[in-house]
Amino acid sequence: MQIPLNVPSQPKRPPLELCKISLYSTGARGKVFTNHFYKALNHNFGVEMVIRNNTSTSQTVKIGGCVYDFQGNTVVKWGTTKQLGARSASTQDFYVREETFSELKEGKYKIQFWINNKKVQKDFFTITFK
């Protein structure tokens, strides 16, 4: 039995990777990270994403997301293009403004994220009246 000499110590990482997603509300003390928002206390919220370029070249990346209500209807969409340096990570914030937040009803919502028009991850949050 022969044992291969070139065994990678770690599995190969994807060229672009969504490393972190955090939902937050804003307040006097800055960002408060949570997945539960209260209509009486919160007036808006944001999504913080960390994206990593695992390649040795700089890349232009399309980043996007969409919020769906409990019935699957699109509530908010956003997107941008960002330049990522080789083997680097970048934080991107998307902000749901007060006008849009005030239109959201009580219930559970889903956020779907895309990198270069491919679905990469989803997250959920809840809005209640307090």
Low-pLDDT residue intervals, each spanning 5 or more residues: none
Instruction: State the order of secondary-structure elements, H for helix, E for strand.
Output: EEEEEEEHEE
Arithmetic mean pLDDT: 87
Biggest sheet features: 5 strands, mixed
Spatial order of the strands forming the largest sheet = 3-9-8-5-6
Total of DSSP H or I helical runs spanning 4+ residues: 1
DSSP strand (E) fraction?
over 45%
Keywords:
130 residues; mainly beta; five-stranded mixed β-sheet; four-stranded antiparallel β-sheet
SSE topology sketch:
Elements: E1 16-27, E2 30-33, E3 36-38, E4 45-53, E5 59-68, E6 74-84, E7 88-96, H1 98-103, E8 107-115, E9 118-128
Parallel strand pairs: 3-9
Antiparallel strand pairs: 1-2, 1-4, 4-7, 5-6, 5-8, 8-9
Provide a concise account of the structure shown.
This protein has 130 residues and is mainly beta. The protein is built from one helix and nine strands; from the N terminus they run E-E-E-E-E-E-E-H-E-E.
